[in-house]
Amino acid sequence: MNGVNVKKLRRKMNVTQEAFAMELGVSVDSVRRWEQGVREPSALASKELERLAGNGDLDLCTDALQLIAGNCGDPAGLAQATLKTVTGGVPTPAT
Q1: pLDDT (tens digit, 0 to 9) for every residue of the chain, 95 residues total?
Q2: Residue 1: which of 27, 37, 55 has the closest Cα?
Q3: Domain coordinates of the chain in residue numbers?
Q4: Rounded to the nearest 10 degrees, what angle do helices 17-24 and 58-69 cross at?
Q5: What's the CATH architecture for 3-86?
Q6: I want to staple 3 with a disulfide (CB 3.0 to 4.6 A). Which of 13, 37, 57, 76 is the partner?
Q7: Is the pTM higher than 0.70?
Q8: Cα separation, 28 vs 20, whole angstroms
Q9: Helix, strand, coil percentages for the chain (3-state, nearest 5)
């Protein structure tokens, strides 16, 4: 994955470079260098990027990252997204 795609993925997830770096387990400087085209992600980082890019639960990942970054204004929304993902979008009976 090249720098342009890294930046597109991060923006699609609507998170800061800091939160994105935390999710990938890399430094913010690494994310910045990738996005600027100065360096390419390592093989391990590329694998994680591909996992995020291909993740069917991208919305859940996005909500979790926004919560970590302090950008999630509705923590209850995170719970709803989690429930929707866990149940495959099928409503569950109230307990």
Answers
A1: 787 889 999 999 999 999 999 999 999 999 999 999 999 999 999 988 988 888 644 444 554 555 455 544 444 444 444 444 444 554 445 54
A2: 37
A3: 3-86
A4: 120
A5: Orthogonal Bundle (1.10)
A6: 37
A7: no
A8: 8
A9: 65, 0, 35
